[in-house]
Every structure is written in C-alpha cells, then in structure tokens.
Write a structure and sequence with these properties.
By secondary structure, this protein is mostly helical. The chain contains six helices and no strands. α2 packs antiparallel against α4 and α5 packs across α6. The longest helix is centred in the middle third of the chain and has 16 residues.
C-alpha cells in the first residue's frame, strides 16, 4: 500500500498535477478508522468525514456515473464494513481500484433511499 501511494505521489509530482482543494479536506480524514465511520452514522464527525470523502471522490469522477453524498458515503460505509480494520482512505482507494478493474461496487445506499 505504501509503495502504491508513493508511486501515485511520484507520478503526480512528475506530471505537475496540482492538488485540488478536495484533496486537502480529504487528507485530514484519510486515516479516520472505518470502525468509527461505521459506528456513528448520524454523528457530526460522520457528516464532516462524509462531506470530505464525497468532495474528493467527485473531484476524480466518482465511483458511479451519478455521484451524490448519499451514494458515495454508502459505498464507503459498505467497503468499511467488509474490513473494519481499514481506514476511510483505504476504503476509498479500494473502491477506485474496483472501478478501474471493472469489479462491481457495493450498491448500498444511505440517506433513506
């Protein structure tokens, strides 16, 4: 995982791509534990993390053709439930990897849908 992240950082630096504002907001929640993300679905911290994740995912074309806060946080929550030892950043990385490799994404909706 560290090597993949280092490769992405190196590729970003080499190509001159600048970080988007969503990257900065998400960076502060990247290490947020999945256990905490799952445990308090309606808490204030949950909403802050969800908004940062949704902004980050949207900035990179999202997981699905239609990106919304409810869909994105539901998919991250579902990925976190697969392995609660992950961090939110790990879950987001795995979802992007699944999308890239054509693996079906979890279709767990949130927000009462």
């Amino acid at each position: 995982m560290r090597y993949a992240l280092a490769a992405v950082i190196l590729a970003t630096v080499a190509t001159g791509v600048r970080a988007q504002p969503a990257d900065n907001a998400f960076a502060s929640y990247r290490a947020y534990p999945c256990r905490a993300f799952i445990a308090d679905p309606q808490g204030k911290r949950q909403i802050e993390v969800g908004e940062a994740v949704e902004a980050y995912v949207s900035a990179y074309d999202g997981f699905e053709p239609y990106v919304s806060y409810c869909t994105t946080t539901g998919q991250v929550r579902a990925e976190c439930q697969l392995d609660p030892r992950f961090t939110v950043g790990d879950a987001v990385d795995r979802l992007f990897a699944k999308k890239r490799n054509g693996i079906p994404l979890p279709m767990k909706r949130a927000c009462g849908a």
